[in-house]
Specification:
This protein has about 375 residues and is an alpha/beta fold. It has 14 helices and 13 strands.
Length: about 375
């Protein structure tokens, strides 16, 4: 890897590259950087084989792949530590609680600055993994979140060297997308893009949809996401509510954009809050009216009834929000138009690249000045 003068090399270490908002953002960062060359990238994923891993490999300068003999190979961490410790880099940027631990060790060994970007959510209550991550996050030279809400929930917003860098979207990937209709042309489609996990509230959405469908027979529900353990419970509830004939599940795509474009209303209900939701940003970029859980992170993006609708998660509130958009075309169009303007103004990919590049230069320069 030949380096141009003054461009830092960043070791990006992440727990995994399975389908999710963070992983999508990592790909956006790597791809945008490859086009504009703000820094060099050494990339490694703790858990191999995620849906976005090939994209990360394609847009990295060096991809570190450590072979595991079996799933619970405890020596894997030592092999990874040894492999990345031999490489040349100027700063480490970690994402995830396991990566936070390894990143701290490598940073100490190599005497390079550590940037921690693990805070990508704003949970109402920190889990055990969150508390472990918080311990190591606090030991980084620099902490980056994609939301103010995340920093506040992890109780580190008042610390020095804490930054918020909002998600960046490559809007060019939406320009040539054709609508993908999975229902008949008369259907009004409500779409939710979210993995089937305890973090997302598919259950209350189904209950709300059951209420809406009693009045609007042509409303359909499109659920897009990978199964993270909850899909069977969602499908069982749909059967119990006798609404399964109005629902379509898509569980095998990394590119939901064409389905979003073919939908009429987009929704995201979360059980544990949000940081900056990539799904919401993609809804807005495609000019769709958005309904989202009323929580701190979503309030950083959405102004209620201006560029989206914020709702409580109970079925009555959600169904009322859906029906409000169904009956009020002017409101629906206003929200969709404002949403597109906001996301294109505040969540540009170039802005994200500028901010990360500036941050890397700053932490590297600060460390050099201390030597």
């Amino acid at each position: 890897m030949q380096r141009e003068n003054k461009l830092p090399t960043v070791l990006i270490l992440i727990d995994h590259m399975f389908a999710g908002g963070l992983e999508r953002q990592i790909v956006e960062l790597l791809k945008g950087n490859r086009k504009q060359r703000r820094f060099y990238v050494v990339f490694s994923s703790i858990i191999p084989g995620g849906q976005w891993e090939d994209e990360a490999r394609r847009y990295s300068d060096i991809f570190v792949n450590v072979f595991r003999k079996y799933k619970y190979d405890i020596f894997f961490v030592f092999k990874l530590f040894r492999s990345i410790s031999r490489l040349r880099f100027d700063v480490i940027h970690v994402f995830g609680w396991i990566s936070s631990i390894i990143g701290c060790l490598v940073a100490l060994k190599r005497n390079v600055p550590l940037v921690n970007g693990t805070i990508r959510k704003a949970p109402f209550k920190l889990s055990f993994k969150d508390r472990v991550a918080r311990f190591f996050i606090k030991r980084a030279d620099c902490i980056v979140s994609n939301s103010i809400a995340g920093l506040e929930r992890f109780r580190i917003s008042s610390r020095k060297n804490v930054f918020v860098i909002k998600n960046g979207i490559d809007f060019s990937r939406f320009e040539s997308i054709e609508k993908e209709k999975v229902f008949d042309s008369e259907a009004i489609v409500i779409c939710m893009v979210a993995n089937f996990s305890p973090m997302k509230d598919h259950m209350n959405l189904l209950k709300a949809y059951s209420v809406v469908r009693n009045e609007y027979k042509n409303v359909k529900l499109l659920l897009i996401g990978r199964d993270r353990g909850n899909l069977k419970f969602v499908q069982n509830l749909a059967f119990e509510l006798s609404i399964e004939d109005g629902i379509m599940y898509i569980t095998d795509t990394n590119s939901p954009e064409k389905y979003i474009k073919g939908s009429d209303i987009c929704i995201l209900l979360s059980t544990q809050g949000e940081g900056t939701s990539n799904s919401i940003l993609e809804y807005m970029a495609l000019g769709k009216p958005v309904i989202a859980t009323d929580c701190d992170g979503n309030r950083e993006i959405i102004k209620d009834k201006i560029n989206g609708i914020l709702t409580n998660n109970d079925p009555q509130s959600v169904s009322d929000s859906i029906k409000l958009l169904l009956v009020n075309e002017n409101l629906r169009n206003k929200i969709a138009s404002n949403a597109r303007i906001v996301v294109r103004k505040r969540f540009q990919l170039n802005r994200m690249l500028d901010e990360y590049s500036s941050l890397y230069q700053k932490v590297v320069g600060r460390r050099l000045n201390k030597r």
